[in-house]
Amino acid sequence: MASRCIIAAPARSPSDRLTQRDVSSFIPACYHPPSRSASMILPTVVAHRGASGDTPENTLAAFDRAVALGCPDIELDVQVTRDGVPVVLHDTTLDRTTDVVAHAEVMGPSAGSGRTEGTRVDALTLAQLRTLDAGAWFGDQFAGQSVPSLEEVLARYVGQARFTVEIKVPGVGLEAKVLGLLTRYGMRSSASLCSFLPEVLAALEPVAGSMPVWFNVPQLTQASIVEALRLRASGIAAPIATLTTDKVAEAGDRGLLVAAWGMTSEAEVQRATAWELDRVICDRPDAVLGFINRSTAVRG
What we know:
Blueprint: H1 20-23, E1 44-48, H2 60-68, E2 73-80, E3 86-88, H3 104-107, H4 126-130, H5 150-157, E4 162-167, H6 174-184, E5 192-195, H7 198-204, E6 213-216, H8 222-230, E7 235-239, H9 245-253, E8 257-261, H10 266-274, E9 279-282, H11 285-299
Parallel strand pairs: 1-2, 1-9, 2-4, 4-5, 5-6, 6-7, 7-8, 8-9
Antiparallel strand pairs: 2-3
Helix pairs in contact: 10-11
């Protein structure tokens, strides 16, 4: 496999795009690109929920792995606890990625019905979440990983990584809390925001300033492009399987950055490279970079 380091652009305007001329000033020394045209556009490779193909998603282990790979852009999901603390977790319930089902005696009545199955993140305080194991479900070697707070993550990786923060919950002031933490840790100028929820993008529009804000959609269609423009999003992100040449071109022609997630084959990464996407969001950033290296080497 090719180099296990990740290409990503430094903080830049949403309208800027990365060309081969930009690369030498910031890529890790272990990356050795093949000879290719100076005008070739390279996508930023973003670690999805950290390096979630190798480690339990949205944990410090996953983010440590992404940083160790040299990946300076990491996507994570943020929700809020019962006591108002932004925490990093994808699902609205805790069953899939924690051992909450083993903790009925700890959760008590604050879990709602008293049943742990289907317990929501916002039903528990941060202290209660800290009692859960968020790593053992993925492998015994990750036992003891906890659900991190957003502040814990930002404090740990200041100066080491850029983050793309997906806001999962509308209407609870989470947008302001996320922006406040990014500002506190000096990471606002290098971070991006995203959401599937139009109401979140609407709340971000007057306060995000120059930060890139991405509209996540289940399918790249003309309607989703129009909605992204209405919401004044910087870019639109969709599953790679839903992208077509025409729709990628339409989004770009209308001023949107374009990203894809869900690459599971080299052929899909080759399509992403051929379309000159701005970002590819992946569970295995090391593998995707290897695919990009090989596909661009063929072009020469």
